[in-house]
Write a structure and sequence with these properties.
2 copies of one chain form a homodimer. Helices cover 41% and strands 15% of the residues of chain A. The first copy, chain A, is an alpha/beta fold. In chain A, strand 2 and strand 3 form a beta hairpin. In chain A, helix 1 packs across helix 2, helix 1 crosses helix 4 and helix 2 crosses helix 3. Chain B binds a DNA duplex (22 and 22 nucleotides) through helix 1, helix 3 and strand 2. Chains A, B: Keywords: Cytoplasm, DNA-binding, NAD, Repressor, Transcription, Transcription regulation. Chains A, B: It is found in: Cytoplasm. Chains A, B: Modulates transcription in response to changes in cellular NADH/NAD(+) redox state.
Chain lengths: 265, 265
DNA sequence: CGCTGTGAATTCATTCACAGCG
DNA sequence: CGCTGTGAATGAATTCACAGCG
């Protein structure tokens, strides 16, 4: 990906930044809601609010797609829905397979937003022979043995892995060998794939851990705020509300013997 | 460096970059696996591979935490596990509530990796009176009416929203009012929260859409690479270069005004 | 030596601020 | 006027590359 250094002069002809791509679905969702309410046009300000971003960012994002707005007015909702859908490749239907029909896999299979927008669950696959034939979300589960056949018969290029961590890499390899080039991984493990295959991961415990980090920081600040007095500043120096570094940021270097007790017991 | 140049050598005492925070759980997972295999030390190179990042990035990340390695040797696995756990706030247990016990909520409740690392499901909450009392993953579901009491009785500061989109904002407000300051949102909607509250979102269809974008791009490149044959089908693959230079082509507008109606809601 | 830790360089993303079109 | 589209400025993240410690 992006390895090829095009000799294209400055102006990116089609290099939409990754960060922008990641926001297009958000815009699309907001626009779809407006469309359902028959709202004809939106300003960047309104749409940005609905999508939870700021308007400068939204306008910059749209500028990578082309000039789809009208100065003094805003954007035509229907038109933008179409343009973004097209950009995301949602004007076609993507058959998807879900591998691993446990609790999570079943929940994904039942997830409505799936079919509604450009994706179609082509098959559910599980390694447990007991599951074979049993319908989940109206679709009969098929055994892993059929994986390769299913992929090629249906021209599947997107696979969802919802197996236990231990099985994920192997499943991944089979999917890739069978022709899948995009994988959404729910298993808590790092997948290694050949070049040209995209992997995105969703991991509950990672998200929780990130939240815990911030939560802990908040607790620390709170405590520091209450007793705003000289304390072991190395321990849990409350970052200034803004971002800049707080005062007295002396050297670092974690003195190994010292394990600063951080938890506000 | 640009503006840098404060009086202080910018040794941030605690300003860990967000991107780094997001990777700490990955390192932790890889380290935990090593620890279970009783591996005593790892080099940045090995650990980086296991975590799926490159070693320079890993070393830079660790440098924000302190100097926990030994030159010429690597990192002590146990020690690093401890340091990262502490940094992430996992040396304490975080009670978590899950609101919305449908397919997904149930799957989350059953998710093992939950309890295993610093988190404890304090309660399951659902709006359906039918659900009340029924145990899911061994925990009895409680009715939404109890939400505030549950939060405060258990000192919950992290909430997981797995309700339908329509209910999410309201649930969010009640959680926040009751004292929750970190939210993991699985509902496909933008939550608005007051300052000081962190929200992270997990959205299946967004992830799929991002994959579809890249998938489409691959298909386009492939076609173009194959043999510049005039593809008869969709004339708008990933390559449709309608965007161009900002300078000369200043006044370009959408494609010949048309194409309104589109997606099936 | 080998491998960490880190300034400096580079690349990527966000924000500002305003020219200019409708 | 109001609002888009976008250069330029700023800021964040990644990568390079190497000094220096064990």
């Amino acid at each position: 990906m992006a390895t090829g250094r095009t000799h294209r002069p400055a102006t990116r002809s089609r290099g939409i930044p990754e960060a922008t791509v990641a926001r297009l679905p958000l815009y699309l969702r907001a626009l779809t809601a407006l469309s359902e309410r028959s709202v004809p046009t939106v300003s960047s300000e309104e749409l940005a609010t609905a999508a939870g971003v700021n308007s400068a960012k939204l306008r910059k994002d749209f500028s990578y797609l082309g000039s789809y707005g009208t100065r003094g007015v805003g954007y035509d909702v229907e038109y933008l829905v179409y343009q973004i859908s097209r950009e995301l490749g949602l004007t076609q239907d993507w058959p998807v397979v879900i591998v691993g029909i446990g609790n999570l896999g079943a929940a994904l299979a039942n997830y409505g937003g799936f079919a509604s927008r450009g994706f179609r669950v082509a098959a559910l696959i599980d390694a447990d022979p007991e599951m074979a034939g049993k319908p989940v979300a109206g679709i009969p589960v098929q055994h892993t043995d059929e994986l390769e056949k299913i992929i090629s018969d249906n021209g599947v290029s997107i696979g969802v892995i919802a197996t236990p961590a231990g099985a994920a890499q192997q499943v991944c390899e089979r999917l890739v060998a069978a022709g899948v080039t995009s994988i959404l991984n729910f298993a808590p493990t790092v997948l290694s794939v050949p070049d040209g295959v995209d992997v995105r991961k969703v991991d509950l415990s990672i998200e929780l851990q990130i939240l815990a980090f911030h939560e802990q920081r908040k607790a620390g600040e709170e405590a520091a705020a209450e007793a705003a007095l000289p304390a072991g500043e190395r321990a849990l120096p409350a970052d200034a509300p803004r971002d800049t570094a707080p005062p007295g940021a002396a050297g670092r270097k974690g003195p190994e013997g010292d394990v600063p007790a951080v938890m506000p017991a």
